[in-house]
Amino acid sequence: MNAPEVRPLAVNRESTVRAASGWLWLLFTLACFALAIWAFIAGVVQAKNHGDGAAWLIVGGIVLLVGFILSCNGFFALQPNEAAVLILFGAYRGTVSESGFFWTNPFNRRVKISLRARNFNGDKLKVNDKRGNPVEIAAVVVWRVHDTAQACFDVDSYEHYVSVQSESALRHLASGYAYDEGEQDEVTLRGGSDAVSAALREQLQQRLARAGVEVEEARLTHLAYAPEIAQAMLRRQQAEAIIAARQKIVHGAVSMVDMALRELAEKQVVHLDEERKAAMVSNLLVVLCGEAEVHPVVNTGTLYN
Fold first, then answer.
1. Which structural domain, as residue segments, surrounds residue 135?
2. 213 and 168 housed in the same domain
3. Cβ atoms of 284 and 256 closer than 8 Å
4. How many Cβ atoms from other residues are within 10 Å of residue 44's Cβ?
5. What is the mean pLDDT of residues 140-150?
């Protein structure tokens, strides 16, 4: 049995249109309103005086008054970084993106969409990183509507779409990176913040392009191990820090001992055999690598006693 054919969704594109000046149409509609009142009153007066054309004046006044009421529905105002999508009986007629006071066909339905930059501050999510460790992660996304037609017609609610897709992209991103301690030159969530942010922005842009949304920036705002393993990972990090510090201390101590032996030999301060060199190296390493304060013991005898 053949599977039903899936019809691809149509992609809408924004078309910019210019609306008529609202101030000119306001003068025109006010003039029509005044003319309607005059015609209606003149018709009533002529009807009382049994004059000719009273009915036509009354009907004309009523028609002008209805036109005035309908015309008032065509006025709208737009603020800076705001657009209005015009829809006439279900058909997309265009988008007005200039700010000001305008008039359009009264039967046009107007959907106002903000073009300003917005922040989406996501909640903390618990996900598994590349090595399966549970971590808590959250991100902030700076976005704005780029194509009003796509935002209005290609998704059901573009704001909800941004919220859902941002959470999905963040979960997918976290599963592709280790929290820390990656392989050589491997990008990790904690150590490669710039690379991770760039990857998150790219994923979000691919997902939100359908809704006509442009992602300007995406950054991690929270990153930590989940509470159930936080203490164990903290002890591991402390042990790694102690090992790294010890390595640096030992490296410095060996360098200082080597320098001391070379200086004594070059300046011929004292002649040491191999046994005394070993003892001196041992004592210097204890002094340089020990954590507690060292108390020297003064030898009042000979070097060998």
1. 118-225
2. yes
3. yes
4. 14
5. 93
